[in-house]
Amino acid sequence: MPQSGNRIAGILVTLGITATILGAALTLAEPPMASRARAATGGPLRRLFDRVFIIVLENTNYDAALQQPFLRRLTTLGALLTDFHAITHPSYPNYLAMVAGSPLGINHNRQTDLDATSLVDLFDPAGVAWKVYAENLPSPCFTGITSPDGLYVRHHEPYISFRTIQAKRARCERIVSADQLSADLARNALPRYSLYVPNIRNDGHDTGVAYAATWLQAFLSPLLQSPPFTRDTLVIVTFDENAGARGNQIYTAFVGPMVRPGATNGIRYDHYSLLRTLEDNYGVGTLGREDAKATAICCVWKE
Question: Do 104 and 279 touch, CB atoms closer than 8 A?
Fold first, then answer.
């Protein structure tokens, strides 16, 4: 098992959690949220989930992703969005679109310091705690292009591009090394919004989707066996962009106790739709860009 998988498995043992089969991990009771959304056919979402944990993989066509056994398995545990699309090519503008509702004029992978708002500028005034876990990040507030080992690349971690985050240490220190995830799990201190950024081997960028899927299984399976992690938590696995197939369609799966196992949704969505879903769920408004025009994701939620 990769190191990250060993760390997660170890911390679950220290919590006294007995491993169960992967499928059984998601048979938890439906989250007891007083304001849980009831609309299964569309409309604004409110508090379908209390926490979200997003993992972004790299550069894979939709069909190729579905050929991986673990990625297929996630679609039976949760829901598959069968017409979900990235915004553009290459990677960097897609990551910006995920968190800012626009590529902000960027059409390349050259790192740029941006005077613009992002999702966390909506979260902070509303008291929605957030954190980014980035593999191989040398230190919090690191603004270099790559880590010394070359495994962390800045354009896969979108938030450090924003000057409003760079300029305030209390904000940029929320972008942490992925090693901190184990400690946060042990303290039951996961924030309400987590973005997990694998390194360029684990995300498939330098290794391909089969490698990425194998890494993901080792990393994610122990988490999905942990009721303290899964309770009220929506896990999202998506890709930044595809590998060049027409339409830029990408794999996106939702897993969690609020999601109907085996559900599919064939409505056309994109990164803006996912951003709007988060904004609506937490009731924080929009950034007024493409997210304001987007439709939140429906039709995969439990009644």
Answer: no
Between 180 and 30, the higher pLDDT residue: 180
Task: Report residue 20 as tokens.
Answer: 């169960």
Looking at every residue in the chain, the average pLDDT score rounds to 89
Within 240-288, strands assigned E span 253-255, 264-265, 269-270
Q: Tell me if 284 sits within 8 A of 124, measured CB to CB.
A: no
Catalytically annotated residues = 206
Q: Which two tokens stand for residue 277?
A: 């879903």
Report whether 218 contacts 203 (CB < 8 A). Answer: no
Check residue 201 and report its DSSP letter.
T
Q: DSSP letter at 17?
A: P
Helix (H) or strand (E) holding 223: helix 209-224
pTM of the full structure: 0.88
CB 280 within 8 A of CB 260: no
- The half-sphere exposure of 198 on its side-chain side, counting CA atoms within 13 A, is 32
Whole-angstrom Cα distance, residue 244 to residue 88? 10
Provide the β-strand partners of residue 253: 80, 237
* CA 219-220-223 angle, 5° bins: 110
Token pair of 83, please?
Answer: 């017409």
Collapse the DSSP code of 36 into the 3-class scheme (helix H, G, I; strand E, B; otherwise coil) and give the result: coil
Query: How many C-beta atoms surround the C-beta of residue 207 within 10 A?
Result: 15
CA of residue 131 relative to chain centroid, distance:
11
- How confident is the model at residue 35, as a pLDDT? 37
Do the bridges between strand 253-255 and strand 233-239 make them parallel or antiparallel, or are there none, so unpaired? antiparallel
Note the CATH number of domain 42-224+236-293: 3.40.720.10
Q: Which residue has the tokens 């944990």?
A: 53
Closest C-alpha among 178, 224, 214 to residue 2: 214
For residue 7, which of 139, 149, 181 has the smallest C-alpha distance?
Answer: 181
